[in-house]
Design a protein that fits this description.
20 helices; Rossmann fold; 38% helix; 15 strands; 530 residues; 12% strand; 5-stranded mixed beta sheet; 3 domains; 6-stranded parallel beta sheet; alpha/beta
Length: 530
């Protein structure tokens, strides 16, 4: 009789043989199967097959007969483990396949060679700042990528990947520099052919321009990011996408990248709930950082300045492609233009670990607070420090929190070690170490939901207030959005004064004075509820 194709060994073999013999293009085999095949009357072809945990003896015999399992009627009730004889065809086949696949345990091969990656000094333009010239971190990211592509050691291994439209990120210069890969070349004349940076496709192109498909582009990231294991070639995928769209549409693949140990850079463009000012709730990203934080070997950052991006990317190149760690990096970039400062001395380790002191409080004020900020909101925090000192005689130390997530992971690691080693000196989380000599309550603000910065609450051994952008996005100016979501400089000042008042260091009426001074409306709707 004719069996269903997926259960007919001859048909499956014939299809596989035809697929292997067909060269030059992929082959798809469609095989029809039924649920519970081989289980007989107990579950075969029934919707309940997934819920069947045990078989009665009659069903066991039916399964035995269907699959030609060598067990006698007398022994079947014992459910014996069956191992084919060492000289049987089955065992010969299994042994041959394991040998061809490299052994009996699944493991990564060590065939791929590490890269000699550029030193941090290769990104000197980002380290020295832009003076008064205003530049976005998106442009800084493009310049960092250009350095990578020009590097004599790694340039040809870099795989820029872009879903949708590269011009949104200012990456059209790559069209001419490296070209857009197309297996068939350019079969048409693009409408911008008369421009210097026209849409140039070629068989030798290096840029993957995937169209509007984040999932397809993430699949390319997976392929390039695991090429070191599958093909013995260490590629460096650099995937730039709209941060909110990307994480929403490809979270499952981001997890797959983690458990398949892909390496590379994910870059979330036009990020920040209040930084992308005009496109409402469809685009405004306030939670990609929380999604990335769930992936154990994703290393997420939230940089504000170009030099931070340079340090992060160079560190990622070193860890992933020289030392060959099984991690991948994520960082968002913004479309807000502002002067990029030069890198202060000695902050590299702090950038990598997630926190460094950017600005020490000025003057000899009796009251002092610690302000943390990340992404573009760090600039609001810096402005808040000026207001605290000028208007309220409160000194404010400002910290750049390049990764609240890494601070939390470090803290959790210390907590675990202390739990398992009660007789030894306890370890102190990095964030607590940094704050040790800097008194005062802590206020943290970001362009993401409060949960992002609130991750470190357990590891901050003092009063800790968090500001964030909980709620839906909306269209407005950056100033208006930051006021609406209560993460602007005035709300940072208010949170700092309130923390001091709650500790008894400041009269409560000063908080009310600040509300009036900065025209803050206590009756304004909660952003999370509208």
């Amino acid at each position: 009789r004719l069996n269903r194709g997926g259960h007919d060994a001859r048909k499956v073999y014939a299809a596989y043989q035809a697929a292997v013999g067909h060269q030059g293009q992929p082959t798809v085999i469609l095989a029809k199967t039924i649920k519970g095949f081989g289980l007989g009357r107990a579950a075969q072809g029934q919707n309940i097959a997934h819920n069947v945990k045990k078989l009665d003896e009659a069903s066991m015999r039916e399964l035995r007969d269907n699959l030609n399992i060598p067990v006698s009627d007398e022994n079947i009730s014992q459910h014996p483990f069956i191992r084919p004889q060492a000289d049987s065809p089955e065992m010969h086949y299994l042994m041959e396949r394991r040998k061809a696949l490299g052994g009996f345990l699944p493991q990564r091969g060590g065939n791929a060679q590490p890269h000699e990656v550029p030193a941090l000094e290769a990104f000197q333009k980002e380290l020295e700042g832009t003076g008064d010239r205003e530049v976005s971190t998106t442009m800084a990211m493009v310049r960092v990528l250009a350095v990578m592509l020009r590097d004599k050691n790694i340039g040809k291994y870099v795989v820029p990947i872009i879903p949708d439209e590269a011009r949104s990120f200012g990456m059209e210069g790559l069209f001419r520099q490296i070209g857009i890969y197309s297996a068939v070349g350019q079969l048409y004349q693009p409408e911008d052919a008369d421009q210097l940076m026209y849409y140039k496709e070629s068989k030798t192109g290096q840029l993957l321009e995937e169209g509007i498909t984040e999932a397809g582009a993430m699949s390319s990231f997976l392929a390039a990011g695991t090429a070191y294991s599958n093909y013995g070639v260490t590629l460096i995928p650099f995937f730039c996408f709209y941060s909110l769209f990307g994480w929403h549409r490809m979270m499952d693949l981001a997890w797959a990248a983690a458990d398949s140990q892909a390496r590379g850079f994910l870059v979330g463009g036009i990020a920040g709930r209040t930084t992308l000012e005009g496109e409402g709730l469809q685009h405004q990203d306030g939670h990609s950082q929380v999604m990335a934080a769930n992936i154990p070997n994703c290393i997420p950052y939230d940089p504000c300045f170009a030099y931070e991006i340079a340090v992060i990317v160079q560190d990622g190149l070193r860890r992933m492609f020289k030392e060959q760690e099984h991690v991948y990096y994520y960082f968002p970039v913004m479309n807000e233009n502002y002067p990029q400062p030069a890198m202060p001395k000695g902050v590299e380790e702090g950038i990598r670990r997630g926190l460094y002191l950017l600005r020490a409080g000025r003057g000899n004020a009796k009251l002092r607070v610690q302000l943390m900020g990340s992404g573009t909101i760090l600039r609001e925090v810096l402005a808040a420090a000026e207001l605290l000192e000028k208007d309220w005689n409160v000194a404010a130390d400002v910290w750049s929190a390049t990764s609240f997530t890494l601070l939390r992971r470090d803290g959790q690691d210390c907590v675990r070690w202390n739990l398992l080693n009660p007789g030894k000196d306890p370890r102190v989380p990095y964030v607590a170490q940094q704050l040790e000599k800097h008194p005062g309550p802590v206020v943290a603000a970001s362009d993401y939901v409060r949960l992002f910065a609130d991750q470190i609450r357990e590891h901050v051994p003092r009063r800790f207030a968090v500001l964030g952008t909980d709620g839906f996005g909306r269209s407005d100016t950056r100033e208006g959005l930051r006021h609406f979501f209560e993460v602007d400089r005035f709300h940072v000042v208010l949170a700092a004064l309130k923390a001091l008042a709650d500790e008894g260091q400041l009269e409560a009426k000063k908080v009310t004075e600040a509300i009036n001074k900065y025209s803050l409306n206590p009756e304004k709707p909660n952003p999370m509820a509208v």
